[in-house]
Design goal:
alpha/beta, Maf protein, 9 helices, 7 strands, 40% helix, 20% strand, globular
Length: 223
């Protein structure tokens, strides 16, 4: 018996995962429908085997307020991303996510498209709390003729972020770096914590970064 088989048996005994999940672990490689380096890093750290593909979906920089909850909108956008990749790779399991910001005034914000817009977003967050919502979709294919009980799994998580005071000079210096690009709300939590910004989180920090890992790994275990 090779080391891979032994590892899988030990994992099954430890986590009590389903036979379908065993097939997912040993046969299929996930697709992450995202080019986000932060989501890639989270999956890599969790030991998930995957390929990252930029989804051919025109992700709106600013989510339309349809009257649905932020969680509902984020899950719907993540589904659209996953579906766009499934059309190209119908035989692969797919993970997709979308992250939105609920501003202090309860309006929704997405990814800024200019440094001016990023600055406006961040200044509205100073000395108050905002919420980061990440919605996730898992799309599962048939595996060796076996159809999963749920071909589509969706969930969302919300975390509260409090950003203290950041001086105009520090904020302008940050905006000049261009590191606000491609980030919901114009910032990455881990980057700003490392830079010494006064930012605290009530909730799962990986939700703020863009992929709620505790909930995701539980779903992978329970398949």
């Amino acid at each position: 018996m090779n080391s891979l088989c032994i590892s899988v048996i030990l994992l099954v005994l430890e986590l009590n995962i389903s036979p379908f999940a065993v097939k997912m672990l040993t046969i299929m490689k996930w697709i992450l429908a995202s080019q986000s380096p932060r989501r890639r890093q989270l999956l890599e750290q969790a030991g998930v085997d995957f390929d990252a593909i930029n989804p051919p979906f025109d992700d709106p920089a600013h989510p339309e307020d349809t009257g649905a909850t932020a969680e509902g909108i984020a899950m719907q956008l993540s589904f659209q991303k996953a579906l766009s990749v499934q059309k190209i790779h119908p035989d692969r399991p797919i993970i997709a996510a979308d992250t939105l910001i609920v501003m202090p005034d309860q309006t929704l914000a997405g990814t800024p498209t200019s440094s001016e817009q990023a600055g406006q977003m961040i200044r509205k967050m100073l000395n108050t709390a905002h919420w980061v919502v990440t919605g996730v979709t898992l799309l599962l294919p048939e595996i060796q003729g076996q159809t999963p009980e749920n071909k589509r799994i969706q969930f969302a998580d919300r975390a509260q972020v409090t950003l203290g005071n950041v001086s105009n000079s520090d904020l302008d210096a940050y905006l000049d770096t261009g590191n606000w690009q491609g980030k919901a709300g114009g910032y990455n939590l881990f980057d700003r914590q490392a830079a010494g910004w006064p930012v605290t989180v009530n909730g799962d920090q990986t939700t703020v970064v863009g992929l709620p890992m505790a909930i995701l790994m539980q779903h992978l275990k329970d398949m």
